[in-house]
Amino acid sequence: xxxxxxxxxxxxxxxxxxxxxxxxxxxxxxxxxxxxxxxxxxxxxxxxxxxxxxxxxxxxxxxxxxxxxxxxxxxxxxxxxxxxxxxxxxxxxxxxxxxxxxxxxxxxxxxxxxxxxxxxxxxxxxxxxxxxxxxxxxxxxxxxxxxxxxxxxxxxxxxxxxxxxxxxxxxxxxxxxxxxxxxxxxxxxxxxxxxxxxxxxxxxxxxxxxxxxxxxxxxxxxxxxxxxxxxxxxxxxxxxxxxxxxxxx
Length: 249
What we know:
Layout: E1 36-44, E2 54-62, E3 68-75, H1 87-90, H2 107-114, E4 117-121, H3 124-137, E5 149-151, H4 156-159, H5 167-174, H6 184-205, H7 213-221, H8 229-235
Helix pairs in contact: 2-8, 5-6
């Protein structure tokens, strides 16, 4: 069998609403009204994207209004002999990862579902840093590309008075339900809830466009992702969620 074809996401037509400037200084009109969100949370073996590994992915695909469209999660096997890191935080031990796919075995699915959306995370610098390092190493992301992102942690105090920007505290302040903290899918769902809360507060204040409009504009044009659609469809059956999580919802 020859190599599978890989795809870049096709750029969307530029229309309506925002007025960013091109590199040449000319105004461009960009439609962000249909741009959705990919809310992601990762559990990892440590804090360094260069030295540590992803061991769990939780992904929530949300529409332009923040409503959840689809979710999935999977454990990720980082390879033989790799220390799983702080079990006291993420609750995972090496035996939990036996039989789970390697990141390369779900990378096309992950990239397909990230493409065309603004990537959202609570402390996006951390999660997107790991995604950039890992997916770049698998040739699923162009080297040096900056992934369009929204950080629910950085924006917390713009939308509410919270004593801490930690995820649990933000959720308590906003009245957002959070399940098992440091379980990737539960934390991704909680971050998606914060995103919807921020949207509601912004509407009440009459803030238009939303505070993260630049990230939405960038998501329209971003074509740094690279994936095989055939592989992505096949990888949907390879997901191994943590016990208690669904596979695809």
